[in-house]
Amino acid sequence: MISINNLSVEFSAKSLFDNINYVINRKDRIALVGKNGAGKSTMLKIIAGLQNPTSGSVAVPQGTTIGYLPQHMTISDTATVIQEVRTAFSHIDRMREEYDRVNQQLLDATDYESAQYQELIDRLTSLSEQLAIAQSENAEAEIEKTLLGLGFSRDDFNRPTSEFSGGWRMRIELAKLLLRRPDVLLLDEPTNHLDIESIQWFENFLTSKANAVVLVSHDRAFIDNVTNRTIEISLGKIYDYSVNYSKYVQLRKERLEQQMRAYQNQQKQIQDTEDFIERFRYKATKSVQVQSRIKQLAKIERIEVDEVDTSHLNLRFPDAPRSGDYPVIADGVGKAYGDHQVFSYATFTIKRGEKVAFVGKNGEGKSTLVKCIMGEIPFDGTLKVGHNVKIGYFAQNQAQMLDGEITVFDTIDRVAVGDIRTKIRDILGAFMFGGEASDKKVKVLSGGEKTRLAMIRLLLEPVNLLILDEPTNHLDMATKDILKQAIKDFNGTVILVSHDREFLDGLVEKVYEFGGGKVRECLGGIYEFLEKKKIASLTELELSKSPTGKIEKEASKTKTPKAEPQPAAAPERETRRLSYAEQREREKIIRRAEKKVHEAEAEISKIEEQIADIEKQIAEGSTDPDIYTKHAEANKQLENAMSVWELASLDLDTLRSDL
């Protein structure tokens, strides 16, 4: 579908890409992988047409739509969330015009067996599907389902977008992009602003509804679940594998091992041949054999071993000074902003040397509780930081807070004190900022390089309580593995706020879940927590939000006696009394919800019958020129009807779980 031909890019006489060729096919789900600075984001910008290569070209067929989500963008709008997302359908008029034009080209065509004719059919089908979504009465249902999947609540729909943080504004842009259903989705670190629950919904969307996808992500679990092809960018070249990331890692290792064995065998053969020539070069009786070996040597095609980028990060946290036995003790801690109670009655104790994770939807209070521990904001209840606790804090936006106009060296030099100033060059070298890289201005660094630079500042003085808020955003796979090992080896206490399942796996022994205004303690690692919560879909997640739902009851059994203080019991009893008082009204609401589900099921059956009838006509050789368009439109109507049924079923299940 999109062809990258002889692509080369140079920056300051340094080659980023060297004569690269590959093709993006329909339904490809490609992960671009490589070290930070290898050129992954640059590749996406070139495909999107936002940056020109030094040489080569990107061939995009006429009419192919491309949707691009960058790592960072400047967003300025004044509409509500729902109004802004509806702008995703502002291109409908242009689509109608193109639909009419392609349809006319099909009517005029006579070369029915040609590739061009098939491309016209594919394009007409794609346009038909997009128009069916945009023009159907269920477009609102698609918008609602997408926003709910990305973590918004229905109460958020009519709030001005200006009230949301940058991360939530990026979710709005992502929702618009997904609703447009472009032929090719280019996604640069799309999970950086999503929580675990939203990532799981997003995975399902990409695998079931998206067309071609090219993404850059350092969330290993995410790309394993989404992609079916991996393209590695390394030292200006690409290596293309038709497998997901985990299989690529294994195949890459095997490829390099095979190359090395073949190279070594060939080198031995060459050496033996050269030794024979040298030994018998001047013996007349061996002249024929010598000449034969010389010709043989000239014909050998030399095996080359792929050059491997062996530069790596040398990361080790300084030894932690001994702190008290309990670095953090929270008793009935709560935080509210005006009438909005973020969380309440948070009661827990973190012991010295423990490594714990804060998880939950964005906006549920993870970073807020971190700020309470740091003493940056006031709060209710009692929160004690233990004796001799020295905190090292890595904020979520730490990399963005760096001064872009100064150099890498000056960034560290300005915060370093004492003898450490004499070792700045060595420290920068250990973090892959050696040589000329230390004189780069911060503004030209990639996202991962900025994160590494911000991490250096954290290591300038010994601490015994590390609080890391999304430390893996923008870090490449290799650097994440090194950071994970460094945290494992750290002999102090660690609080990790992260949505990266693979990173947390094997690293933390306790999980604190934030949700519904509460903080719950769950013993075990991240996958044990997800297994207990049975978070496999957005539907189950919505059920888990119910204060009296079955899933939440099961999770509560894992709490320690202190995890839920007594004052919270009274409001729960009040909830049950209200539930009984309103039982009759609730039954009416449930009956209405059941009716919606039955109506949706009836609509699905009706459309399925229509599709069966159309397919029968096709099988019988229908002469209707619009028969394939009708088939595509009917299939899209079926998809929309399924979306309505899913939403209706979701509402019904939620109502039933509240009883």
Secondary structure class reads: alpha/beta
Radius of gyration computed on alpha carbons: 30 Å
Contiguous low-pLDDT stretches (5 residues minimum) are 535-581
Mean pLDDT, rounded to whole units?
A: 79
The shape is flat
Strand percentage: 15-25%
Query: How many extended strands?
Result: 18
* Main β sheet profile: 6 strands, mixed
Note the total helix count: 22
Helix fraction, binned, reads 40-55%
The order of strands across the largest sheet is 5-6-7-3-8-9
End-to-end Cα distance, whole Å, is 52 Å
Give an account of the 3D structure.
The protein is 46% helix and 17% strand. The chain is an alpha/beta fold. The chain has a 6-stranded mixed beta sheet, with helices on both faces. Strands 14-15-16-12-17-18 form a 6-stranded mixed beta sheet, sandwiched between helices. Strand 1 and strand 2 form a beta hairpin. It is flat. The protein starts with a strand and ends with a helix.
Describe the secondary structure blueprint for this structure.
Layout: E1 2-11, E2 14-24, E3 29-33, H1 40-47, E4 55-59, E5 66-69, H2 81-86, H3 92-108, H4 115-135, H5 139-149, H6 166-180, E6 184-188, H7 196-208, E7 212-216, H8 220-226, E8 229-234, E9 237-241, H9 245-280, H10 287-299, E10 328-337, E11 340-350, E12 355-360, H11 366-374, E13 380-385, E14 391-394, H12 408-413, H13 424-430, H14 447-458, E15 465-469, H15 477-489, E16 493-497, H16 501-504, E17 510-515, E18 518-523, H17 526-533, H18 538-544, H19 550-556, H20 569-581, H21 583-619, H22 627-657
Parallel strand pairs: 3-7, 3-8, 5-6, 6-7, 12-16, 12-17, 14-15, 15-16
Antiparallel strand pairs: 1-2, 1-4, 8-9, 10-11, 10-13, 17-18
Helix pairs in contact: 3-4, 4-22, 5-6, 5-22, 9-10, 21-22
